Amino acid sequence: MNKRDELIKKYEADLREKCGVEPDGDLLRKVTIGLGPSIYNKDSATVSATDPSEIERLKNNFLIKKLGLSEEDALDAAIESVIETYGKSVRTKHRAVVYYLLVVHFDKAAVYG
């Protein structure tokens, strides 16, 4: 099993155990691949839910640019909901899991073909 597959298994476990969500393995794989090499870097592989600049980047670079959403789509509320689902006390929030939950929240799986 290669490193990416190991990480996807870890993300699936987080979705099941921490988020109470049964993941769509195919969509999770596509979201993970879409993140490119950032999943291998300790800093960029996670989301700091308490850092306003990180949340702003997530909103602008992922939700608006990648998923094609706009401010009218209640982006802040969706991010807050996903952070709540993951668990505010969970310090290590994997970026792939957060992105996956946002894709599902906004029903934007089609973006990943």
Features:
Recoverin, domain 1; 5 helices; two-stranded antiparallel sheet; mainly alpha; about 110 residues
Outline of the structure:
The chain is mainly alpha-helical. Helix content is 56%, strand content 4%.
SS element count, helices? 5
CATH fold description:
Recoverin, domain 1
Q: Oligomeric state of the chains?
A: single chain
Helical proportion? Answer: 55-70%
| Strand percentage | under 5%
Strand order, sheet with most strands:
1-2
> What is the number of E strands?
2
Could you explain how this protein is built, in words?
The structure is a single chain. With 113 residues, the chain is mainly alpha-helical. It has one domain: Orthogonal Bundle (Recoverin, domain 1), CATH 1.10.238. Helix content is 56%, strand content 4%. It has 5 helices and 2 strands. It has helices spanning 3-17, 25-34, 52-66, 75-86, 95-105, and strands at residues 46-47, 93-94. The protein has a two-stranded antiparallel sheet. Helix 1 (3-17) packs across helix 2, helix 2 (25-34) crosses helix 5 and helix 4 (75-86) crosses helix 5. The chain is globular, with a radius of gyration of 13 Å. The mean pLDDT is 95.
Topology:
Layout: H1 3-17, H2 25-34, E1 46-47, H3 52-66, H4 75-86, E2 93-94, H5 95-105
Helix pairs in contact: 1-2, 2-5, 4-5
